[in-house]
Amino acid sequence: MQRLILNKKNHIMILNAVLISFAFLSKWTAQNMEIFVWSMAAASVLGVLPVAIQAYQALRVKVVSIDLLVTIAVAGAFAIKNFEESAIVTFLFLFGAYLEQRTLNKTRSAIKELVEMAPESALKLMDDGEFEEVDIEEVDAGDILLVKTGAKIPVDGTVLTGGGFINEASINGESLPVSKQKGSKVYAGTILENGTIQILAERVGEDTTFGRIIELVEEAQDSKSEVERFIDKFSKYYTPAVLILSVIVLMLSRNIELAITILVLGCPGALVIGVPVSNVAGIGNGARNGILLKGSEVINDFSKVDTIVFDKTGTLTIGNPKVADVEFYTENPDEVSGYLASIEKESAHPLAKAVLEYIGDTRLYTVEKTDVVKGSGIIAVVNGHRVAVGNEVLMEKENINLDEKVRTDIARFQQKSNSIVLTAVNGKIVILIGIRDRIRPGVKEDLKKLKKLGVKNLTVLSGDNQGTVDLVARELDLTEAHGHMLPEDKAAYIKELQKKGRIVAFVGDGINDSPSIALAQIGIAMGGGTDVAIETSDVVLMNSDFSRLPHALGLAKATARNMRQNIIIAVGVVLVLLAGVFLSEWVNMSIGMLVHEASILAVILNGMRLIRYRLRF
Amino acid sequence: MQKAIIQLEPLICPSCIQKIEGAVKSLDGVDKESVNISFNSSKVKLNFNDEKISIQDIENAIGRIGYKVIKSQSKAI
């Protein structure tokens, strides 16, 4: 019976409205007070039913809820024969709840969209050798699944047979389909655009990368900052306190009207809902735009950031160095290129890869007595010659003179922000190579936007030499640049900044920079869909898209601002109402309820503004 | 021990959480510390001892205080 009444709340609300209108109609047109009173009474009783039931259910689990306050208020109004007020209050309360539900649903829609993208069924290989469609919940790790063209990949796993092209946009934003064959890894939530594959399920449901992202968004939306936890504790005691206050006022003033008005006013609805609504809307906006802000504490910290420290390679630059300029100081360029290629073949250094790519196919020689000099280069014996490959520091160590021409060339190369690699054979420089790691397109504009948003310091840290780093800093208009930094040095640098009271965000690659990411107040990993990036960052740029950074910062600031606005609205309204109740005559129960509901709607609507937030410059 | 994830109809009132918490925490067999109610995704997550109480009992308890359970799943932990 109780369930039935609660299910029909909306119908009750409408019926309530009808009865009240009917009452007013008969009062004004037909001047019939009796019908007026009876209609209002009926409306009150009808309207208070669902509220009273909710109050009772809450009491059963020892919770004093706002339903209880409203029920008592309505009963009180009934007792002093003020049927008009009791009816209006019940209607407003029901209507308010209805509007809240509609608007809250809209605020949560971003996450609903994400969840709906999750696969719900899969074709599983059964014991009889046939594939059958089963609910996604019945798939376990180790199952073999069939995926046909056009279908969503249901789990994280490996391709056993078949092949095709998969659109992985939902995981990492790449719009070009990726080719998959036997042994390739596939991810839940992505779409097989072309082909047929059988996959071995490795991670299912919440454990898939996709599932993790959804869970993180949900956790983020529910995570409470200190302010929210305080408000929660506050409201637990607040509601019973209002009840007691109302009783005291009743006993002192013998004014039932006043007492029940206080009951209606004293519900912290707007305050309790205000901050979470901003949080949900802000995070929802982020999720839709490829940004995951992990909670309102993160949002608050990020909004106050004054220093952003960037890693260079792979963050500000594309991370794919290429040979840009070459100079030969010998008559046998092919031979020395061969020596160089032979040495670089044994090196795992990123610059080596660029050199090999440039040289291409060439005659290779045996390399002996390889001596790696950390931070400077390699010395080895190739084809009987002593060959040194590295930077100026290495050449100095080898006592190799750099003549006028070489020096000029080096200067010229460095002007173009090249990392230089010198090759010397038997004490004489033979090759000069300039390697450039291109700055990601658009980074300069993005950094400008960050400055506009109020970030005072933009710093770059890199393992590369100071010269290259300075060039990057100059081109991108950065505040500071430090080269020759090992991961530990970067972490130490951040610590120093924090000691000086700065709020630091660190943007880097998820794997090597984890100490720095952990230390900074806001750690941002450009790892895209990798587990490491997702787990360790405070702000995840889901597609490794640097250009999302300004939006992320702007969104955090807007959300923090929105929360503050909501708190002001909520508290302000209560104060105004209280003042009105005690200091003047115009605040009665109906007005109190109206203003109260209006304030709740106001904070929800204010929060909703964040859904459509966009960076406007 | 089992872990349960119970999906409810969208929650709208802040005090709903307190009510549901009160209802499930008082059930014998439910691990009080593990009860986690997510307001925005309207999910109840908790651990329970399936020898003392069934997922159906937990759903009923939630239903008794007026919240409709849309679906639930549990798995051993």
Short description:
The complex is a heterodimer of chains A (617) and B (77). Helix content of chain A is 54%, strand content 18%.
Question: How is this structure best described in words?
Answer:
The complex is a heterodimer of chains A (about 625) and B (about 80). Chain A is α+β, with helices and mostly antiparallel strands and about 625 residues long. Chain A folds into 5 domains: about 1-105; about 115-205, Calcium-transporting ATPase, cytoplasmic transduction domain A, CATH 2.70.150; about 210-290 and about 550-615, no CATH class; about 290-315 and about 440-545, 3-Layer(aba) Sandwich (Rossmann fold); about 320-435, Calcium-transporting ATPase, cytoplasmic domain N (3-Layer(aba) Sandwich). Chain A contains 24 helices and 20 strands. Chain A starts with a helix and ends in a 9-residue tail after the last helix. Chain B is an alpha+beta fold and about 80 residues long. In chain B, about 30% of the residues lie in helices and about 30% in strands. The interface between A and B is medium-sized, with 35 and 21 residues.
Number of domains of chain A: 5
Identify the biggest protein-protein contact and residues per side. A-B, 35 and 21 residues
CA radius of gyration of chain B is: 11 Å
Which H/E pattern describes the elements of chain B? EHEEHE
Mean pLDDT of chain A: 84
**Low-confidence parts of chain A, pLDDT < 50 over ≥5 residues?**
none
Query: By helix and strand content of chain A, what is the structural category?
Result: alpha+beta
Strand fraction band of chain A?
Answer: 15-25%
Name the assembly state: heterodimer
Mean pLDDT of chain B: 84
Question: Which class best fits the helix and strand makeup of chain B?
Answer: alpha+beta
CATH topology title of chain B: Alpha-Beta Plaits
